[in-house]
Amino acid sequence: MNLTLKIWRQKDAKSKGKFVTYTLNEISPNCSFLEMLDILNENLIGKNEEPVVFDHDCREGICGMCSLYINGRPHGPDDAVTACQLHMRKFKDGDTITVEPWRAKPFPVIKDLMVDRTAFDRIIQEGGYISVNTGGAMEANHILVPKPAAELSMDAAACIGCGACVAACKNASAMLFVSAKVSQFALLPQGRPEAKERVMKMVKTMDELGFGNCTNTYACEAECPKSISRSNIARMNLEFICANTSW
Amino acid sequence: MAELNSKIPKGPVAQKWSNYKAHQNLVNPSNKRKLDFIVVGTGLAGASAAASFGELGFNVKIFCYQDSPRRAHSIAAQGGINAAKNYPNDGDSIYRLFYDTLKGGDYRAREANVYRLAEVSNAIIDQCVAQGVPFAREYGGSLENRSFGGAQVSRTFFARGQTGQQLLLGAYSALSRQIKLGMVKMYNRHEMMDLVMVDGKARGIIARDLITGKLERYFGHAVILATGGYGNVFYLSTNAMGSNTSALWQAMKQGAYFANPCFTQIHPTCIPVHGDYQSKLTLMSESLRNDGRIWVPKKKEDAEKNRQGQLKGNDIPEEDRDYYLERRYPAFGNLVPRDVASRAAKERCDAGYGVGPTGLAVYLDFKDSIKRLGKHVIEERYGNLFQMYEKIVDENPYENPMMIYPAVHYAMGGLWVDYELMSTVTGLFVAGEANFSDHGANRLGASALMQGLADGYFVLPYTVQNYLSAEIKTPRIPTDTKEFTEAEKRVQDRIEKLMSIQGTQSVDHFHKELGKIMWEHVGMGRTKEGLTKGIALIRELRKKFWSDVKIPGKPDELNVELEKANRVADFLEMGELLALDALERNESCGGHFREEYQTPEGECLRDDENYKYVAAWEYVKEGEFKLHKEQLVYEETEVKVRNYK
Domains in chain A, start-ordered, CATH in brackets? Predict the structure, then answer.
């Protein structure tokens, strides 16, 4: 495949960025999107130019590190994948592909396509846990969890924290991410003792960090590589209302 | 240099850990506040250790090269975690888990460590459930188990095909809680560059801030390395792109011994290699072997036609299929340990029965299970794995059998540690995949997660305390001292040297070349000739690297190529040691298969008389290593030939 790439280049957080156009020839359709970028970088190094910086690590769709906005979609033109799982067979020979970083105020650009997502860690630090010290746990089977609840909890827990939901949202809302963590614990008996405090603290921090609100367009769910359901947002809203009315 | 003293406590194996805990030294709460730790790596071992130390009241600094601690590669573990709960009432016990793990490791692991691992396994499950890890459940609400390779009981706990992710997020949540409480300070996008020694003890690290490129100095009364395995020395592996051996290698240069580097695990069920541009290999969980049957065509001509695309797997009739694992190992069938399954796949492909365009693949077929259980059950069990396969290969595994082939996956070898998980450097502890102690020559499935969390939650909090009890009077050492300055200078000099080469080839070029040498000469089937040649080729490549590598950009800024160059420079030394260790070990055991040493049936031929030891290598200078041996003593178990037939 022969391709034209329009890639966002930005020297650092303070500099102004711009699109730079590159051409790539003879790319195999079985190549992953990130492998295609590897080939581009190899070419750039050969020409004494600086390679394109982008985040990536596991390359199997689970670490959540890759974060590319490809042709106007987080993780590109395939459903339920991360950019590292996207393959070039999803494009056509001769295509022009636009690659941008996540665009959201709480995710400032570090360089080129790499952004700072520590805001997500900050939200988790506010309550995305059950307060149990090592060694303080009871026998595992003393806590019975109904299978349907465990399954729903797992659906929510599958979130990889990549930030595609924020990038997809016109309000840069982190509701899907936060609600997934709130739901995982709210659905389990172990998570109930701290449920009220958890949802209030996490939502407050989310707001303080500059994430927008939810206006129910569900772009987050559509672009989530793990298909996290928007029903988690409804569950979080319910938890939030209950927490604020019956504290 | 240090003598190898494994410090195994006295007494029967089942009482060693209790005895240790009963007599170890502790640090009182007011002194804990005065003690600092450094933890490098935020995977299962690192995150769980840091969280546990924070809870105890110590001050912890933790480092990872990723943008968030949640990204560590433990996250990619799929299948499950073992524990001796015996919930299914199928005959499991701590002893049996201990025995299976020791046998699975082909009697090259330290007995006392393995027993302790089995002993704390149940507490890990309790801890993770309390943290809200959503393990699979039965309809009654209790925990569900499944079976894994190398065991005849069902003792594996799992969260769909994402068990590693869920356990890591559990440890990450505990870590996050301690970060919020101020007990742990997180340094993300920081990479350890060197170890700082003060008066013969590990007292700190030099780290590079990957965003600014600046070198920074950090002090700790003790340093814990939980930096994972070295599988990327093969370039193509199931490891994350950033996984590296540099922290271990720098520690080695400061006196830590590297143990059993040749024990690397080749995982049997990975998606086959498909092109030169490929950057990594994707694992298909071992759990698939519960319901999938592995086969190749019985007739060579069928395999030939299949490779040319003229005959599909589905069109080969039942009687013309060779379910070679079931044929060769009737007792364990498709659930033989990983090393056995990998070698059997290689044997069939080498003999000309391989399938797929490259001929380097075998089939993993779910047809019978789908018929028996229904598609929905298979989907519920393995849905995410099937989806992953389809995205990569562009073929529907519900309709066509999966193609799989072995790939480098896990490092059983690592820095040598004693029973307390302390290396030969005083005050330097090593946990998880980074150490060598629990898996011998082969790791059983669902044991890595168990070991990472055992080390972090239930071993280090005791053993490190024992060490620190003698350090309560050591004040915090300022980082402007001679030792820190010298260590930083070492790093600075190396970076300048790398940047000054300005050759013609990229870092990746050298990494790929190294990978090819390793796979061909130090891979699944090793010979004296091949290994000798491999060592010569690695040395040659290393020389070329140091004269012809090209690193664009500057050192004092975000520079991904420089990060990679630092790691590859160490792999180019580590690869040689791996080959040397394989050459020195004149036997076959577990993942280490020397073609000269096999039974007439092609199984591993171990030499217990001469090689029942841990090979611990001391770094002398570049390309020169000195071998030390820890003889393995089996008090509780009889060392037998491993038999899965």
Answer: 3-111 (3.10.20.30), 118-245 (1.10.1060.10)
Taking residue B595's Cβ as centre, other Cβ atoms within 10 Å add up to 14
**Which residue type is seen at A107?**
F
Helix axes B528-548, B560-584, angle to 10 degrees: 160
Whether B136 and A150 lie within 8 Å, measured CB to CB: yes
SS3 annotation, B548-611: HECCCCCCCCCCHHHHHHHHHHHHHHHHHHHHHHHHHCCCCECCECECCCECCCCCECCCHHHH
User: What is the end-to-end Cα distance of chain B in Å, rounded?
Assistant: 45
Which residue in the set B126, B275, B509 is minimally distant from A30, CB to CB?
Answer: B275
Rounded Cα gap, residues B229 and B191, in angstroms: 16
Residues B36-59 as b or e (16 or more Cβ within 10 Å = b): bbbbbbbbbbbbbbbbbbbbbebb
Active site residue B338: yes
Q: What does the alpha-carbon distance between residue B528 and residue B532 come to, in Å, rounded to a whole number? A: 6
CA distances from B101 to B106, B110, B450, B466, B483 (A): 9, 11, 11, 27, 42
Query: Rounded to two decimals, what is the model's pTM?
Result: 0.97
**What three-state secondary structure class fits B631?**
strand
- The reply to whether B235 touches chain A by the CB within 8 Å rule is no
Contact (Cβ atoms closer than 8 angstroms) between residue B494 and residue B544 = no
pLDDT in tens, A98-157: 999 999 999 999 999 999 999 999 999 999 999 999 998 999 999 999 999 999 999 999
Q: Is B400 exposed, middle or buried (0-12, 13-18, 19+ CB in 10 A)?
A: middle
Instruction: Report which of B43, B639, B384 is spatially closest to residue A225, judged by C-alpha positions.
Output: B384
Q: Which helix (H) or strand (E) holds B327?
A: helix B324-328
Give Cα separations from B266 to A35, B258, B325, B441, B535 (angstroms): 23, 20, 17, 11, 20
Query: Which domains, and CATH codes, for chain B?
Result: 267-408 (3.90.700.10), 484-611 (1.20.58.100)
**Sign of torsion over alpha carbons B617, B112, B37, B169:** positive
Q: Annotate A112-149 with b (16+ C-beta within 10 A) or e (fewer).
A: bbbbbbbbbbbbbbbbbbbbbbbeebeebbebebebeb
Q: Is B457 in Cβ contact with A184 (below 8 Å)?
A: no
pLDDT in tens, A155-199: 999 999 999 999 999 999 999 999 999 999 999 999 999 999 999
In angstroms, the separation between the Cα of residue B53 and the nearest Cα of chain A is 9
pLDDT band for B419, please (50, 70, 90 cuts).
very high
Identify any residues that bridge with A74 across adjacent strands, giving them in sequence order. A69
Do B554 and B213 form a contact (C-beta atoms < 8 A)? yes
